[in-house]
Amino acid sequence: MRAPLAVAIVGVAVLAAAILVETAPSDAQEQHGAFPVALTEGERGDGRNLAVRVADPRLADVVVLDGWRGTTTGEWLVLDATAAARSSDALLVTTLRIGELSFAGLDSGEADTLESTLLEPGLPWRGALLFELPADAAALPGADHATLRAALSSDPRLDSVLELEIDLTTLPHDAQVLVPSLERTTW
Amino acid sequence: MPERRRRPHPVLLGAIALVAVLGTVALVAWPLGGWETATPASARVPNVEPAEGLRGGLLDVAVDRVAVTTASPDVFSELEPGRVWLVVDARLTVRDTDPVATLSYQDALLVPGVTSLDATVHPEQLLREGDRASWINPLVETPVRFVWQVDDAWVAAHPTVTLGLCGWSRVTGVIIEGDYWTDRREVATTEVPVLDLRGSA
Questions:
Q1: DSSP characters for chain A?
Q2: What is this model's ipTM?
Q3: Among A8, A133, A144, A170, which residue's Cβ finds the most Cβ atoms within 10 Å?
Q4: Distance in angstroms (rounded) separating the CA atoms of residues A107 and A115
Q5: Which residues does B100 contact at the CB level (< 8 Å), separation at least 6?
Q6: CATH classification of A34-184 is 3.40.50.20, yes or no?
Q7: Per the CB < 8 Å rule, is B141 touching A74?
Q8: Distance (Å) from the C-alpha of residue A115 to the closest C-alpha of chain B?
Q9: CATH number of B52-200
Q10: What is the pLDDT of residues A32-79, one digit of tens each?
Q11: Measured between CB atoms, does B98 come within 8 Å of chain A?
Q12: How far is the C-alpha of A50 from the C-alpha of B197, rounded, in Å?
């Protein structure tokens, strides 16, 4: 009886090992990628240490924010956003993915965007998110389902990332957009 | 009595083998241009007209103007004695899929006789539309001003200057995620006149 029992135990162990190997994450993205949290336009989304609400995306040739006038050879994607940290002070980092291309949100010290402001727990700021894009960005492959990603680090692995899908092909395009100043707000 | 054959001397055998090997290699090399006479295509750096722009790396660079001046490029920086500002106005376009950070595009241009130690206007002070952006996004042509300090001898020796475009490869780190740059090399050059604006400063 002992031999069949040993064979059965080994068989079960091998089967368990095979299941483990087959189901365990195999690539780097699955092993230590970020945890995406889907956002809906105009509604608050919560990640581990970040709460964000994004609304009113539009395109513009020129952006005016306080005393700063943003010109570009391309065009701007402008979004109104509200953001706060949830557990500790942090800086917001945003990227926009259009097909294979990735665009960094403007974090210039000259323009007071939401991305240039220290976020504190429970104290939301309302301001603008700005992306400098090539001219006619709506014609880029994948522009109909671009993805805005908001995180607290350029390296958000094993942390949450809030994601909003944007259809650039349907956005209004203005010659100039006057962006409201950064201000304290409430949810 | 059988005739005894003498075996060839080992040195002679070695010499014959060596000649045979060299002859074979020479026969292969001959139609290819011989020894070290052919320059691999990858080693040739194209020299282009300024109007064509520098291409071939992760960045395209269109050079608009090269000038030496004593006028400060910003309100903070001062010239060291005996030196002048070398200012290159250019337009950069990222051809990669991801943004390129200031720390990388500051090295996009290679100037003979000038090193990064001469860049007393440091990367965060590179002027971009009067602003200091951390990134240049893909496919957005962006005006950038490069500024170095050079001495008078450099100016006297350079009525024109051959600017090189630095190419590199982007490597994404795993332990600390981020971009790292390797394989830096000159991928294109262009010769541009150097305007002397010292008198008009």
A1: -HHHHHHHHHHHHHHHHHHHHHHS--SHHHHH--EEEE--TTS-EE-SSEEEEEEEEEEEEEEEETTEEE--SSEEEEEEEEEEESSS-EE-EEEEEETTEEEEBP--TTS--GGGSEEBBTB-EEEEEEEEE-TTGGGSTTGGGEEEEEESSS--TTSEEEEEEE-GGGS-EEEEEEEPPPEE---
A2: 0.84
A3: A133
A4: 6
A5: B58, B59, B94, B135, B136
A6: no
A7: yes
A8: 12
A9: 2.60.40
A10: 788 999 999 999 999 999 999 999 999 999 999 988 888 889 999 999
A11: yes
A12: 52
Pairwise CB contact (< 8 Å): A134 & B135: no
Does A141 contact B at CB distance below 8 Å?
no
- B44-99 pLDDT, tens digit each: 889 999 888 999 888 899 999 999 999 887 777 788 888 898 989 899 999 999 99
- Give the integer Cα–Cα distance in Å for B165 and B186: 6
Average pLDDT, chain B: 81
Closest-CA distance, B104 to chain A, in angstroms, reads 15
